[in-house]
Amino acid sequence: MIAILGATGYVGSSLARVLASRSHEPLALFARRPSALRANLWPDNVSIRALGAFQASEFELVINAIGAGTPTRVAELGGEILNITRTWDEHVLSTMSAVTRYVFLSSGAVYGGDFSKAVDEDSQLSVPVNRLGSFPAYPLAKLEAEARHRLLPHRAILDVRIFGYADIAISLKSRFFLADLARSIAYNKVFVTSSDPMMRDYAGALELAAVIDCWRLAGAPNVAVDLYTQRPVSKHELLELAATCFGVQIQFARTADCPTGSKAVYASNFRKAGSLGYRPWRHSLEIVLPVLEAAAGCARAGHG
């Protein structure tokens, strides 16, 4: 039986939809607000439970998707994200049985702030030890959890670092590049962005599920991997797609608002997941297209 913690979040909810389609494997979805999940139709193999009732020992596989959800929420939580991440991570670790396998959804943010090029196996993190208050709490929270997991080499724990993520359930209220672009399509608004080049590796729930499946089949080693696709996508490609297929008007500004910070290349060349058998079959532009099509459908339905 599989459990997903944080099943109402952007990543958790999309992964839940993929895993729920596998009728042969029972799935329990945990959320702070179970009523938000019950509003949706789920197959018979899915149960919905309150987060406070979770005990890892009941499950063969636990996927921890608890997080802030959006860049705006990350900013609002500040240092509290450290406590939230630690609390639920330690709860899983303290209640899992000898046969429980644990997947923790980490982030590419653990590599720090230098994304002038794609990160790789040799990338290093520089932390201002005498000015820790100036270092963002979110990557520290993820890095702390990963460190805790590596100190338990006998446990079956997978940390999956997510860089870009694209799903049709994207919130048009969110503030990051892809959400802003989808909102421009849905509301038929001019898309304002900087002229700075940018590369993103947008994966989806299918890629995430595939990495988890490969890890389980490989014997569930204690390891951290980066999530990647066949190929990242450039800002130029995304803007060309938006203009050509959806009629979006593009306006370049000298200093466009960038809510998630400046990341010229938010992608990874670290291919550890390949050693588990993971072979990506889609590239980022393929994964993003349905998201933008869904936004266009929202506009046609009169909700924009």
UniProtKB/TrEMBL annotation:
Q: Which domain of life is it from?
A: Bacteria
Task: Kindly give the InterPro entries that the UniProt entry links to this protein.
Answer: Epimerase_deHydtase, NAD(P)-bd_dom_sf
Where is each NAD-dependent epimerase/dehydratase domain found? 2-146
Q: What is this protein called?
A: NAD-dependent epimerase/dehydratase domain-containing protein
